[in-house]
Design goal:
Pfam families: BLUF. The protein has 142 residues and is an alpha+beta fold. The chain is 42% helix and 30% strand. The chain has a six-stranded mixed β-sheet. Bound molecules: flavin mononucleotide (FMN).
Length: 142
């Protein structure tokens, strides 16, 4: 079994332009995550970061604590935290799900439901939508 966390957070406007900030986060994630056995995906929708992290439970405790302290965002809210049989992003150190394509899958709507405290249904649907749109080496700048 593997731990899978889904969280939402709010970008800090003074951290830089959204594309540059996202690219920086993707780069550091792709550098660090393989050695940590972490996989996942990141996107942004309606001004909210959405990240899925998968890995060993204790490793994730440390990584999430570090990410929570990152000044590039605030208000990190874990909306789903569960043990799963299989990784949804096994091929990806940190996939990027293109916001425009994700929007077609109703991702923004699912995020709104999760913000409002919805249960596990929207979280599962959101992770599935991100897996559908996940791409290996894309960056946010193009
Ligand atoms: C939204 C968001 C997601 C992040 N995701 C990861 C991640 O998956 N892996 C990671 O190592 N760092 C991630 N970071 C960056 C960490 O907060 C931190 O800057 C980084 O781990 C420091 O790595 P370094 O010591 O190698 O410079 C993320 C930051 C933000 C704002």
């Amino acid at each position: 079994m593997i731990r899978q966390i889904l969280y939402l957070s709010d970008p800090c406007p003074d951290a830089g332009t959204p594309g540059e900030v996202l690219d920086g986060i993707l780069a550091v994630s792709r550098r660090n995550n393989p050695a940590l056995g972490i996989t996942g995906a990141l996107t942004m929708t309606s001004g909210t970061y959405v990240q899925v992290l998968e890995g060993d439970p204790e490793v994730l405790d440390h990584v999430v604590a570090e990410i929570r302290d990152d000044h590039r965002h605030t208000g990190l809210d874990i909306v789903s935290d569960r043990m799963v049989e299989l990784r949804a992003f096994s091929r990806f150190a940190m996939a990027f799900a293109d916001p425009q394509e994700a929007a077609r899958d109703g991702v923004a709507d699912l995020v709104r439901q999760l913000h409002d405290g919805a249960g596990p249904g929207p979280a599962t649907a959101l992770i599935r939508a991100m897996a559908h749109r996940a791409v290996e080496d894309a960056t946010a700048s193009h």
